[in-house]
Amino acid sequence: MSIQQLLNGVSLGSVYALIAVGFALVFNILKFSNFAHGGVMTLTAYIGLAAALFFSTWLSGLSLFAVTLLSAALAGALVGIVLERMAFRRIRNNNSPVIYYFISSITMGILMENIVTIFASSTFYSYPRFFELTVVNIAHVNIALTDLLMLVFSSVALMILLWVLYRTRIGLAIRALSFDVNTANLMGMDSNRVVMATFIAAGILGGIAGVFLGINYTLYPQLGQLIVKGFIASVIGGLGSITGAMIGAVLLGVLEVTLIGAVGAGIAPVFVFIVMLVFLLVRPRGISGIIVQEKA
Amino acid sequence: MEYIFAVLTFTGITVIGVLGSYLVTGLTGLFSFGQAAFFSVGAYTSVVLVKNLDVPFLLAVPAAMATGLLAGFLVGYPTVRLRRDYISLVTFGFGEAIIALLNNSVNLTGGAMGLSGIPQYTNFAVVWGSVAVCLTLVVGYKYSKYGRQCLALRADELAAKAMGINVNRIKLVTFLFAAAMTSYAGVLYAFYTTYVEPGAFGWIVSAEWIIIVFVGGINSLTGSVFATILLTGLPEMLRFASEWRVAVYCVIVLLIINYRPIGIFGEFELTFKWLRQLGKKGVKVS
Amino acid sequence: MSHLEAKNLSKAFGGVQAIDDFSFSVGERQIVGIIGPNGAGKTTAFNLLTGVYPLDKGKVFLDGEELSGLPQYQITQTGIARTFQNIRLFKGLNVIENVMTAADPYSTYNLADVFLYSGRKRRRENEVREMSRSFLALVGLAGYEDEKPENLPYGLQRKLELARALASNPKVLLLDEPAAGLNPSEVQDFIRLIQAVHEKFALSVLVIEHRMEVIMTLCANIYVLNFGKLLASGTPSQIQNNSEVTTAYIGEEDEACLL
């Protein structure tokens, strides 16, 4: 494998890491798979597009790109808040079984995808071209500018997230709550606030991921289905582990780029799936080795 | 009239698909986003066998179901022993992989264009006859040791194991039963519409089936069948603005989750016993 | 000849040694108690016996046959049944079905019988239903067959768990705080029930309990756990007069619970 391919894989993987971590954050705290996350990415990607078109009269280049990313991230935070209030707050306060979280998240996922379909119809959109330059040459390796930006912005976003998780009070609260909800409540923690913060963080990551996916694949209402990359990364990395999700995502990115080179882009997902199944058979607990079990 | 029959036929096919989701989700508490993929496996396998290889239809049906079973085993075996979330994630991946496979095996499946010109071997009577048979099988399953063990492990997996239930095996058996039945529904579909394309089998279809099961009442077969007819049959006939149909679905479901969490029918089942009591005492639904 | 025998059980969670080198045995038709302050590792011991967690070290034998390492459901099927400290009944199944599920793993009819509604299936279903009905009657739940378990009062839920455990055809019954949450007259009632069941089915019983009246009335032999380690063992009177045991409890447990 060439360095070129490796770099492509890693930058693709960094976007997958955004997806996987956004998914893992909510999983850790509420212990269910948030299928609405795909919808969040779709919706925010379109909001990012609207922002890009709106600001393109005044801005261009890096500043336009940054504004697009920022709007999508803000929209993600907002969608996160709405999602938590509309779909999960009440069932959480009712202590409903996990089945309800599932149904709620699936429903919200479909709803968001459907809203986009209705308002943007099923036609394909794409972002304006942010840069004249398409390829940069670093140390004799050509890398697509978008790939480079993906890598840089995703890594920064994830680093900020880790900093928040491990160096701030709210981060500590999130980690405490994902460890044990009941005890955290007993300690007088306002779990509503912490869960809200988690959804906001996940939403922001979803927003950034949405824009990058939109740039990579053009915009279409089913864009959110790329959440499957996040799922696969989580399964490889070990469900419930944030660092595992990141590592899994980068591996997935590299694997995918390699497979695309070997068998073509269309059929690559089939091979990725097979690799995942084999991986599950051999090492069901994933790379991180955490087993998340229903509590005895 | 012909139109109504067509709608009812499609509704019948959907009922069988929903029965599969009922087994996996309603009875066992697993969320499979691969049900539509099994549907497409059944449809495509039978079509390819009949059209390309001149296999007789009646032989293609069991072959399609066997392929569905095999796919179900490949997906189910590694995942049933893990935490429930895995089966949702893996079946979601399975759905995407199947669509990718269908889109890219152009020689065999026609790719994104799909396959057309399939002979119409099934009709209203065949479909609803099949519904009756499938319903009988599922009812038998629900009211047996299998169904009870499914409900037990849905409620509390640890306690189920402690009662000597081989949880992984029961999950796998149920998953495979559903996979075979759903593949069969796919065969019915292909040989009724005479046309198949990968786009018709995305995760949304699987998700809609799960939602139908839930709206009907998580533990009620009666509810599943009723909700299928209500949610897929009626809008078609009333010619609802179809683009809003799904959004309306979703809002209804959100309302139900938050305000009537047991679904429309809860655990209620329409039985002869209940009908007799109804005759005597009038309605009482818990 | 020892019936259930546990040798050197050890289990750590992270850095916490939940059970440390704990050995004990329950003789045939014996009732044995495990006591100890909260967090001493009593329930963990049950979870290790029944295969919920893998053992770090140690072995479990039933009638000389090794159980450790088997999956949970197989351990149950060889003859160990349990109840749970925080009642775990199956919601979504009614009372009699809850009991029936415990007998279901022994039903040998197969999918073909199910799909063809065979006589074999019908006969076995009737048999299991009748058997479950008799277990319910035994614990005093006759007439509640079609109720939902979560609608039963707490005391009856405990009895339902007992009936369900019995239906799995055990040789050894593990009871995890069966008297927790019961009022004094219910406790007496439950003690009699355990004695009756013990007699009727020739069971060995291992019971975790905080209520000393339960332990002292029922048990022939008692093991005291503290911080995962065996502190003492012996007959009820030996334990009552053991100064180490008293020290372990005082200040950590309400004395009213003890005496």
- Strands in their spatial order, largest beta sheet of chain A: 1-2
How many DSSP E strands of chain A?
2
Order of helices and strands of chain A: HHHHEEHHHHHHH
End-to-end Cα distance of chain A: 46 Å
The computed structural class of chain C is alpha/beta
Largest interface: A-B, 54 and 47 residues
Distance between the termini of chain C: 33 Å
| Biggest pleated-sheet summary of chain A | 2 strands, antiparallel
| Continuous helix count of chain C | 11
Question: Which regions of chain A have little confidence, pLDDT < 50, spanning 5+ residues?
Answer: 292-296
Give the helix level of chain A as a range of percent: over 70%
Strand content bin of chain C = 15-25%
Give structural notes.
The complex is a heterotrimer of chains A (296), B (286) and C (259). In chain A, 74% of the residues lie in helices and 3% in strands. With 296 residues, chain A is mainly α. The model of chain A is unreliable at 292-296 (pLDDT under 50). Chain B has a two-stranded antiparallel ribbon with strand order 1-2. The mean pLDDT of chain B is 87. Chain C is 41% helix and 24% strand. In chain C, the strands form 2 sheets. A 6-stranded mixed beta sheet of chain C has the order 6-7-8-3-9-10, with helices on both faces. In chain C, strands 2-1-4-5 form a 4-stranded antiparallel beta sheet, with helices on one face. In chain C, strand 7, helix 7 (184-201) and strand 8 (204-208) form a beta-alpha-beta unit. Chains in contact: A-B, B-C.
Q: Could you outline the blueprint of secondary structure elements for this entry?
A:
The complex is a heterotrimer of chains A (296), B (286) and C (259).
Chain A: H1 3-30, H2 36-55, H3 61-93, H4 98-120, E1 135-138, E2 141-144, H5 145-167, H6 169-179, H7 181-186, H8 191-217, H9 227-237, H10 242-263, H11 268-282
Antiparallel strand pairs in A: 1-2
Chain B: H1 2-27, H2 35-53, H3 57-79, H4 84-104, H5 106-109, E1 115-116, H6 124-142, H7 145-155, H8 157-162, H9 167-193, E2 195-196, H10 203-216, H11 221-237, H12 242-259, H13 272-281
Antiparallel strand pairs in B: 1-2
Helix pairs in contact in B: 1-6, 1-9, 1-10, 1-11, 2-3, 2-4, 2-9, 3-9, 7-9, 10-11
Chain C: E1 2-13, E2 16-27, E3 31-35, H1 42-49, E4 57-62, E5 65-66, H2 72-79, E6 80-82, H3 95-103, H4 111-115, H5 119-139, H6 154-167, E7 172-176, H7 184-201, E8 204-208, H8 212-218, E9 221-226, E10 229-234, H9 236-240, H10 243-249, H11 255-258
Parallel strand pairs in C: 3-8, 3-9, 6-7, 7-8
Antiparallel strand pairs in C: 1-2, 1-4, 4-5, 9-10
Helix pairs in contact in C: 3-5, 3-6, 5-6
